[in-house]
Design brief:
The protein has 415 residues and is an alpha/beta fold. Helices cover 49% and strands 16% of the residues. Helix 2 packs parallel to helix 15. It is globular and about 65 Å long. Keywords: Signal. Belongs to the leucine-binding protein family. Residues 1-20 form the signal peptide. It comes from Pseudomonas flexibilis.
């Protein structure tokens, strides 16, 4: 009997060891095709680098991490279907996306599966505002944070100007335009008109028609509330028609991929915002940030963009929360994340408890002249930082958030 008990104990121990060594699956629901595919590629690269680092030091709770990826193509229906598939694979956490509409819809479906969803790149206020819930977190800044930072700079350097808006007609574009209008005092749509373009799938003729109207206006500032390849298409037309030489172009959110695709000659002087560039670790004296840039360049031979930094940070932050909670259960991880302050690739950041918005510094950047860009060994030193706004100053307050939720018929707390 003693021998049998010992044998059973040995078998249970071995079985437990095998189970502990089973990999933990993380699901990346990202755009591998469509207008935002370059931002998606960076997310995958950043996530893989984070996984390798975590696995090299023993994984999470003694288990290695593995990544399962599916293409969302920035399409809501496809992204929601991906959530179901990744949940069926046993994913412990889901993240990804470069469209706020995808983050919102996929996050809601993830909640039905009891899974946390991290919106990786999506700036709509709605994501952590009226559409926010307990299972949805956002690492990037929101539209209000971008607009307040950009608005401060524009108020100082381009006061009392007329604006013309060209906007992607979905949640990111609409909340970004509204936030920028508020921040710049350009709410009067008769004085500061706008044209909305369908997303996804705007035709080239629609870009041309919108920019023709902008050219016929008396606006001095052209606000292109477009992202990814949509912005690239619009910038090429604006450059061809001479708009970039007579109007200041501003974009709410910008990444290095957009500059690289359009070309720095076309993008020169464009103003935008970003929460991170590969220069930020030196500016904020972040050793981890410098190590990330070095490792990323060595592996991929390009500088990491904000898209890569977001994905990298999410994987590390989720893993850290799991270790602190000593559990993979979503509710335990949510509690470990809420109110957590940390430093990773820049200065202090916080997962705010009441809305799950990541609060951090936002930078206003201007695209450098092509000659300056080419001085860099990788020809990718695109941005001059011209202004910044700290997270607490830029993020909506609790009372503002609650007012937005009430207006939309949503409860005052995340459910």
């Amino acid at each position: 009997m003693k021998r049998l008990t010992a044998t059973l104990a040995l078998w249970v121990g071995l079985a437990t060891g095998v189970q502990a060594a089973d990999p933990i699956t993380l699901g990346l629901n990202y755009p591998r095709s469509g207008s935002y595919k370059e931002e998606g590629l960076s997310q995958m690269r950043g996530a893989l680098l984070a996984l390798d680092e975590i696995n090299a030091r023993g994984g999470v709770l003694g288990r290695p991490l593995r990544l399962s990826t599916l293409d969302s193509a920035s399409q809501v229906d496809k992204a929601v279907g991906n959530v179901d598939q990744l949940a069926a694979e046993g994913a412990a956490m889901l993240f990804g996306g470069a469209s706020s509409a995808v983050a919102i819809a996929a996050g809601k479906r993830a909640r039905e599966h009891g899974l946390i969803y991290f919106g990786t790149l999506g700036y709509s206020n709605d994501t952590t505002g009226k559409d926010g819930h307990r299972y949805l977190f956002r690492e990037s800044n929101n539209a209000t944070m971008s607009a307040r930072a950009l608005g401060q700079y524009l108020a100082q350097h381009l006061p009392n100007k007329r604006y013309f808006y060209v906007t992607s007609d979905y949640t990111w574009g609409l909340t970004s335009e509204a936030s920028l209008r508020t921040a710049t005092g350009s709410e009067d749509q008769a004085r500061h008109p706008s044209v909305r373009l369908p997303f996804p799938g705007a035709r080239l003729s629609q870009y041309r028609d919108a920019l023709t109207l902008a050219g016929k206006s008396d606006a001095q500032v052209l606000a292109l509330v477009l992202f990814g390849e949509d912005l690239v298409r619009a910038m090429r037309i604006a450059h061809e028609t001479g708009l970039t030489s007579r109007m200041q172009v501003v974009v709410p959110n910008i990444t290095g991929h957009m500059v690289e695709q359009a070309g720095p000659s076309i993008m020169e002087g464009v103003l935008g915002t970003t929460p991170w560039t590969w220069r930020v670790p030196d500016m904020e004296d972040s050793e981890r940030g410098r190590a990330f840039v070095k490792a990323y360049v060595e592996r991929y031979q390009v500088y990491p963009t904000s898209s890569a930094a977001h994905a990298y940070g999410i994987v590390h932050q989720w893993s850290d929360a799991v270790e602190r909670a000593r559990s993979l259960k979503s509710e335990a991880v949510i509690k470990a994340l809420e109110g957590h302050r940390y430093r990773l690739l820049k200065g202090e950041q916080e997962w705010r408890a009441f809305d799950h918005q990541n609060v951090q510094r936002t930078y206003v950047v201007k695209v450098k002249p092509r000659a300056e860009v080419l001085k860099d060994p990788l020809h990718q030193d695109f941005f001059e930082v011209v202004h910044h706004l700290d997270g607490e100053q830029g993020a909506p307050s609790l009372s503002e958030w609650q007012a937005e939720r009430r207006a939309a018929g949503q409860p005052d707390k995340l459910l």
